[in-house]
Design goal:
Layout (H helix, E strand, L loop, with lengths): L4 E3 L12 H5 L10 H14 L6 E3 L5 H6 L7 E3 L5 E4 L9 H11 L9
Parallel strand pairs: 1-2
Antiparallel strand pairs: 3-4
């Protein structure tokens, strides 16, 4: 089992939909114009938020976001066959971590059961 953050288009860029809370916390970033800029911003996000699992970075053309409708953010569980086993409503208000846990419990047998 692996967990990843997929960093997609910036939701609250200073040249887009900047929020007052981001301004108050000095989280002010322009929407990246290149993949390298997006990758650097993803690294800043991971470090600042102390995210302890790997971050993958979407293309500047937003390929993953368009394929998975990830904006502004979502939770997904992808099964071993690459199928979507769970997709949350748009976050953060649509996040229901218990649904992720339920899906993982269904997909991953406990140790000693079915080779788990």
């Amino acid at each position: 089992m692996a967990f990843f953050l997929v960093y997609i288009q910036e939701a609250h860029s200073s040249d887009g939909w900047q929020t007052a809370s981001n301004e108050k916390e000095h989280i002010i970033f322009k929407d990246p114009e290149s993949y390298d800029e997006r990758a650097a911003l993803a690294g800043t996000c991971s470090i600042t938020l102390a995210i302890e699992f790997p971050a993958l970075v979407d293309t500047i053309e937003n390929t993953a976001e368009r394929a998975y409708t990830g904006w502004p953010d979502r939770l997904y569980v992808i099964d071993r066959d690459g199928r979507i086993a769970f997709k949350s409503d748009a976050g953060p208000f649509g996040f229901k971590p218990e649904s992720v846990a339920d899906t993982l419990e269904r997909l991953v047998p406990p140790p000693g059961v079915d080779g788990g």
